[in-house]
Amino acid sequence: MREHERKESEGEVKELREVKKRAPVRRSRKEECEAYGRPFEGCGMQSDYDVTTKLGEGTFGEVHKAIHRSSRRVVALKRILMHNEKEGMPVTALREIKILKALQHPCIVEILDMFVVRSKHRCNGKDSPLSVYMVFPYMDHDLAGLLENERVKLQPSHIKLYMKQLLEGTEYMHRNHILHRDMKAANLLISNDGSLRIADFGLARAFDPAGGRGHDRGKERKYTNCVVTRWYRPPELLLGARQYGGEVDIWGIGCVLGEMFMRRPILPGTTDVDQLEKIWALCGTPNQHTWPNYDDLPGCEGVKRFDTTYSRRLRQAYDSIGAETCDLLDKLLTCNPSDRITATDALDHDYFWTDPLPADPKTLPSYEASHEFDRRGRRNQPPAGPHMQPDGQYRPPQAQPPPLYFGQPPPHRDTFHNGPPRGQMQVGYSQRPPHGHPPFPPGPPYGHPLNGPYPPAGQPPGPPLYRQGDRWEPPKDRPGHLPPRPPPPLGRGGGGYHNRDQRRGGYAGGGRGGGGLNYG
Amino acid sequence: MSAALVPLASLSQIERTPSGEDGLPADLEDDLKAFGCKLIHQAGILLKQKQVAVATAQILFHRFWFVTSMKQFGIGDVGMGALYLASKLEECPLRMRDLINVYDLLLQRATHTLALHSSPNANPDFKYAPMSYFGTTFYDLKDALVVAEMQILKRLGFNVHVVLPYGTLVNYLRVLGLTSREDACTRAWGYLNDALQTPVYALYAIPTIVSAAILLTTRHLHISLPSTPPNCWWDLFDAAWEDVWCVCGYIMRLYRDRDMVERVRVVGMVGKKEVRRWLEENVAEQ
């Protein structure tokens, strides 16, 4: 064995020596052109694409499915709306494009083309809005839509396959000093051949790998903490941390892992404070021992002290998903960011090296396309006139009894989706329309491990736990003890989310128009 | 990610530049590009902008002229748009108002230089006249700025990834054992900065350009390095001699003595209208 190894290493040394002696590479002009030749090419044209169906819509614009005319390739067109054309191209969009063009990895969505259109049809005489489109390969599903589809049954090996790709993509991203900052199920695209790709880099940015822990303290760069959809937001961001690194994405990955087993978001907080409460209830209230100096952080909406002290019960709550899975989840959902597992270490976790191994992508069944938008499109068809309120808000039918779900109606995924009011930063691949959110459901319990019965162990996790049709219908009256409804989603420029990154020598937002670009 | 290759001009793009196709002579085109880059550089200094953003702007500016003719866009507007865009890309955004004010000053100074040459009796002291409150100058420049930014993005296919040469230079100087020669380091650094006024960053890979800066430095300072085949120092950096020599040529041509007519000609062609007029006067007759 030893000898064999030594032989091998000797072989390597020999090879190295040979490499040293090698003559410098002399490429012919033609070979050089093939190696380096990436001439300047402009954008594509709108006329290159046949638009077929709409996939999503939101405050940011919309996503369309289209076919590239010459190659017949199916693509998704994501429109960047120029909300403040006076300031030129939004920085957030520039970041997204630059990052997507730089990252090349099988687990990260690739950008195929861009094109710019000056919309003519809506021309009011003078300035017609300019739209920029990004072209992506079409993917059949996003994870949120897939989890919602009752016909989709995810086996633990399928989940492992998705987790592996998710972590590989994240590892690559973090190795290249990019933070995603909006990790959630809806931003993970999945195709029928079992490949998962991380999408929506609308909030992504480069970060300093030294992360303030390094040499020159005091000069650390500060980032905004108003990122990541609330249910996937890690405790340090909720507590107002302005210096962070890859850990913020890892927390989101933990939430996604739990979600794949539970089939619904595992930490659906209604407000930022409530979000922290839910986290403490699952992961234990931090103390100086588990998270030294956590109380140095600014705190969440003025709240720094938490009256009830919970102890960590994540392992008990997720006991049924398997020992290794539970251990990985435990390490991903660690409150102290410096103790949280990194993507590199997570890929080396026993979870990926024990039975069942990640599924072979070829064995995956293929499902009909399920984008959140497709599904909500079907769901939100108003069943009859009276239910459609004048404001366009869908209200449930009056006389229907609340459906039973462990004694409580389950919330529909959409209701979770008010998330944090991210304001103008909402650029998503699969986003909800600004209207038509059903009202918030009567809160917990959700059959959630924390506050409701959990399906008996042994029962395969996953498939729908409620079966009263496609649509969740909340009861007519909202009981008083339930938490308040979340605020309506804010559009661009909404509510106080203008914190920008503090930058060295930059402008602290001086004369820039309030609701416009977010440089954060 | 840093391994991502930056786009470079193809042979056909180099041989037939859009401005050249419109009749602009190659030497005039190069001089105009250099002047546009000087304006970017001056604006960057006046705005106390980071050199990273200024250099990025200059490289984007050069790329742009391989896909667009100076008959369509002026070097002033495109330079302004490039600096605005590069500042966003390098996370040090500029205020539009500041950038426009600075460019207005630079353009007024150019006009003043012209006036000085056409009539020797003019007042030799330049005095900046701020934009009038109700005038349209600001809005005209602002529109031009937004258009230029979008055109750069669109015509370059949003490929705005730029690699700067400075880190590579430090590595190469270390490899060659030249870090103790402070004069050599400074000079090589200066050549890289001056090279930003030439199109080489849109033509050659970074190792070639850095090798050219080192070659010029060592020749000027009489530092000998192994240069006889098969032991050539530039081979260490995968640079071909012909390419390195060509980059040296581009840089040295910047320092060529230009007579007064040539100098003034460039200052008077900052906008596309002046370029068009020049083309009508000088090319149409032929």
Automatic annotation (TrEMBL), chain A:
Residues where ATP binds: K78
GO MF terms, alphabetically ordered: ATP binding; cyclin-dependent protein serine/threonine kinase activity; RNA polymerase II CTD heptapeptide repeat kinase activity
Extent of Gly residues compositional bias: 506-520
Protein location: Nucleus
Residue ranges, compositional bias (Basic residues): 19-28
Biased composition (Basic and acidic residues): 1-18, 468-480
Catalytic activity: [DNA-directed RNA polymerase] + ATP = phospho-[DNA-directed RNA polymerase] + ADP + H(+)
GO cellular component: nucleus
Domain of life per record: Eukaryota
InterPro entries xrefs: CDK, Kinase-like_dom_sf, Prot_kinase_dom, Protein_kinase_ATP_BS, Ser/Thr_kinase_AS
Biased composition (Pro residues): 398-410, 436-464, 481-490
Renumbered residue ranges of the record's region Disordered: 1-28, 358-520
Protein kinase domain boundaries: 49-352
Keywords: ATP-binding, Kinase, Nucleotide-binding, Nucleus, Serine/threonine-protein kinase, Transferase
Family under the similarity heading: Belongs to the protein kinase superfamily. CMGC Ser/Thr protein kinase family. CDC2/CDKX subfamily.
Protein name per its UniProtKB record: Protein kinase domain-containing protein
UniProtKB/TrEMBL annotation, chain B:
Domain Cyclin N-terminal: 38-160
GO MF, one example: cyclin-dependent protein serine/threonine kinase regulator activity
Protein's GO biological process: regulation of transcription by RNA polymerase II
Highest taxon of the lineage: Eukaryota
Pfam families (alphabetical): Cyclin_N (PF00134)
InterPro entries: Cyclin-like_sf, Cyclin/Ssn8, Cyclin_N
Matching PANTHER family: CYCLIN
Name by which UniProt lists this protein: Cyclin N-terminal domain-containing protein
Species annotation: Piloderma croceum (strain F 1598)
